[in-house]
Amino acid sequence: MSDVVLYDYWRSSASYRVRIALNLLPVDYRIVPINLLEGAHKKSEYLALNPQGLVPTLVIDGRTLTQSLAIIEYLAELRPECGLLPSDIAGRQNVRALAYSIAMDIHPICNMHVVAHLTTMTDKADARENWMKHFITDGLRKLEAMIGKFDGDFSFGDALTMADLCLVPQVYNARRWGVDMTDFRRIVDIDTKCAKLAAFQAAHPDNVRP
Ligand SMILES: N[C@@H](CCC(=O)N[C@@H](CS)C(=O)NCC(=O)O)C(=O)O
Prior knowledge:
8% strand; Glutaredoxin; Glutathione S-transferase Yfyf (Class Pi), Chain A, domain 2; single chain; globular
């Protein structure tokens, strides 16, 4: 049994990012499911690992790591040859800007506890769906423009980077909420290319659902 443990929720896009990174490196790991719908992330045992009460948490090298992008950067520094972060300072800045536009601008306002709070403030039955569609569409439009500055098969050139590890779970989430993807040609194209890769397939929520 692997010593590397990922505390994960199958539908969590932050967990999905880390699953792809682990598969790409590759690092052998086992998943401990944390069921967000049952509140497992708020139990004291889990809070002892991750005081924010968010998934994912990765235990690796005897360390307990939180925050998906900080985890991916840890893995990228552990194995620089994986190329998840480019070797040059300007390339790394570009990749982080793309990744952060998803992980720090779209994801937090569409998070479960944020949207749950929204529904306590309105009686509108479609408030949750409208909120998700609005902010995901707005964020993806901006991401499409950012990616348009770079040529290549993936978000930043012809190699996979941390930006693609954020893009694919965000697209999964967008489709789940019924976002119209017609205007996001580059994003859809990158997602299609990634979907052909084994590391992405193995990380897909349908393949890790407990
Ligand atoms: N910035 C954190 C965000 C983690 C996060 O928000 N995870 C979500 C699932 S995608 C979660 O645990 N949500 C629980 C909640 O909203 O109560 C990261 O990237 O790890």
